[in-house]
From TrEMBL:
Gene Ontology biological process terms, A to Z: bone mineralization; embryonic hemopoiesis; hemoglobin biosynthetic process; intracellular iron ion homeostasis; nucleate erythrocyte maturation; response to copper ion; response to iron ion
Organism, scientific name: Myripristis murdjan (pinecone soldierfish)
GO cellular component: basolateral plasma membrane
Protein name per UniProt: Solute carrier family 40 member
Native organism taxonomy: Eukaryota, Metazoa, Chordata, Craniata, Vertebrata
Residue ranges of the TM segments: 55-80, 92-111, 123-143, 299-320, 340-361, 373-392, 450-470, 520-540
């Protein structure tokens, strides 16, 4: 006799999914990332437009953002760990969106009254507006970092429960949302600015963030209600247990019965509370608290069992082999136009989505740690095409040209006019303004048309193909951190991980500044592949330490249990 309950109909299953905590998290994440991608694209364009088609403000903004996350990542993570989940999520959400709205209003004022502001106090009012925009936008980015840590690195883990497969599926879905919004959101706001104006673009983004903030706030509350486990944090549970034990011990010493001791609940804190020592209550102690938090966060990160896995992911940021402004600027010097680049970016997004799908399939077949190893091998193999592209016909690679030639030219005061801009301002960041650094020297010799595109074709073929392994590897390390970091340290560890990512990203920009001409781009490619290889060597060390010789064994789904040795929390991966 079948004792199973009645099977749900198709309509009931669909209804349950669309009202589940998982779907509500997806909806909130889609709204959040859509707004983030629109703002990140638009703010750079706005700053270029405001400063006379110069990248100075954009460079300052990027440096401030990267430096802030590098210095404050551990402190933000510690704040996430110390406070209730709902409070952290709601506070970071409101701060982030309010800052973006404020920036939008400031930019609208500047665009509308720029001429008048330039004349006031010799332009100091306008300069103050620039400083305010960059400062408030940086606060928005820090709040966005806190939101990302608490939702993607903590809430997702709690909602998935103890189900590793469910967690992998949720991580993959979140990453697919990231890929889609990364392409579609800039396209939307770019069209609005192209057919309207920058003033209208600012107003649209501010309005979007206002509506999105209200919807996201409601979605967070619904997820919190549907997942009771979110109301309890490991650190808070330990504090509550310690509080009860100390209060019980104190009241037994005073001769009170358990019944009597259970009455004055409001006095419990006052009974257990210990006065701060003079050293801890001093001004110097309070001032140096962030420094101690910063140090403790990095020490905790170093002591994690997944330290080398996290470092391997950070090393992948030290590369010019991505669809950022640097690679795009180089592509323009090699004859690729905006239409071709947009198609290549679309292919890159599709490749990234394929990587998330491959991750879920390979993880089920081979286990999580082996998935990272396989993804790393696949990525490195594809990047070999980029190395080959440096030496094939059509490549401008020439070590006889000094990589410091452009810097020297600017220092001695070269006043030659810059190339005329042929494109709209919405494409400034990926075309004319960035191609300045890459157009100071012409190719040494003419190359036949077929051979002239061979190098750049191999370069982008390798970059696009490698993104399958890249995103699969990224998801692997993300889930390893989620599963192997204790709940009370998730925030600070992920904060330090973000800091490491930004540090290596900064180094790769410094590398480009030191060698900006196209003849040296091949050297940057080789250095980038070397850093990616070092990153995967670190991961191999982590994987071999965790699995030993079993790393190279093909296992069936029933035999893919993997454990990461951890002194604090042994966790099945």
């Amino acid at each position: 006799m079948d004792n199973a309950g009645p099977k749900k109909t198709c309509c009931e299953s669909v209804r349950d999914f669309f009202t589940s905590a998982r779907f509500l998290i997806y909806m909130g994440h889609a709204l959040s990332t859509w707004g983030d991608r629109m703002w990140n694209f638009a703010v750079a364009v706005f700053l270029v437009e405001l400063y006379g088609n110069s990248l100075l403000l954009t460079a300052v903004y990027g440096l401030v953002v990267a430096g802030s996350v590098l210095l404050l990542g551990a402190i933000i993570g510690d704040w996430v760990d110390r406070n209730p989940r709902l409070k952290v999520a709601q506070t970071s959400l409101v701060v982030q969106n309010c800052c973006v709205i404020l920036c939008g209003i400031l930019l609208m004022v500047v665009f509308q009254f720029k001429e008048q502001l330039t004349e006031l106090y010799n332009g100091w009012i306008l300069t103050t507006c620039y400083i305010l925009v960059i400062t408030v936008a940086n606060i928005a980015n820090l709040a966005s970092t806190a939101t990302s840590i608490t939702i993607q690195r903590d809430w997702v883990v709690v909602v998935a429960g103890q189900d590793s497969s469910k967690l992998a599926d949720m991580n993959a879905t979140v990453r697919i949302i990231d890929q889609l919004t990364n392409i579609l959101a800039p396209m939307l706001v770019g069209q609005i600015m192209a057919f309207g104006s920058h003033f209208i673009g600012c107003g649209f983004i501010s309005g979007w963030n206002l509506c999105s903030m209200c919807l996201e706030y409601a979605l967070l509350w619904k997820v919190y209600q549907k997942t009771p486990a979110l109301a309890i944090k490991a650190g808070q549970k330990e504090q509550d247990q310690e509080l009860k034990q100390l209060s019980t011990q104190r009241e037994l010493e005073n001769g009170q019965s358990p019944e009597e001791s259970s009455q004055p609940l409001m006095n419990e804190t006052s009974v257990v509370a210990k006065p701060d020592s003079p050293q801890q209550s001093g001004c110097c102690y309070q001032v140096t608290e962030p420094l101690r938090t910063f140090k403790a966060g990095w020490v905790a990160y170093y002591n994690q069992s997944i330290f080398f896995a996290g470092m391997s992911l950070a090393f992948l940021y030290m590369t010019v082999l991505g669809f950022d402004c640097i690679t795009t600027g180089y592509a323009y010097t090699q004859g690729l136009n905006g239409s071709v680049l947009s198609l290549l970016m679309g292919a890159s997004a599709v490749s990234g989505i394929c990587g998330t799908v491959v991750f879920t399939w390979v993880r089920k077949k081979c286990g999580l740690i082996r998935t990272g190893f396989i993804s790393g091998v696949a990525q490195l193999s594809c990047l070999m095409l980029c190395v080959v592209s440096v030496f094939v016909p059509g490549s401008p690679f020439d070590l006889s040209v000094s990589p410091f030639q452009d810097i020297y030219t600017h220092l001695i005061g070269d006043k030659s006019p810059l190339p005329e801009a042929d494109h709209s301002l919405t494409s400034v960041l990926t075309s004319d303004s960035l191609s300045v650094n890459f157009t100071t020297t012409a190719p040494a010799e003419e190359v036949p048309p077929l051979q002239s595109y061979m190098s750049v074709s191999l370069l982008f073929a390798g970059v696009i193909a490698a993104r399958v392994g890249l995103w699969s590897f990224d998801l692997t390390v993300t889930q390893l951190i989620q599963e192997n970091v204790i709940e009370s340290e998730r925030g600070v560890i992920n904060g330090v991980q973000n800091s490491m990512n930004y540090l290596l990203d900064l180094l790769h920009f410094i590398m480009v500044i030191l060698a900006p001409n196209p003849e040296a781009f091949g050297l940057l490619v080789i250095i980038s592949v070397s850093f990616v290889a070092m990153g995967h060597i670190m991961y191999f060390r982590f994987a071999f330490k965790s699995l030993g010789s079993r790393l190279f064994l093909c296992c069936s789904p029933e035999q893919k249990t993997e454990t990461v040795d951890s002194p604090s929390l042994p966790t099945t991966v």
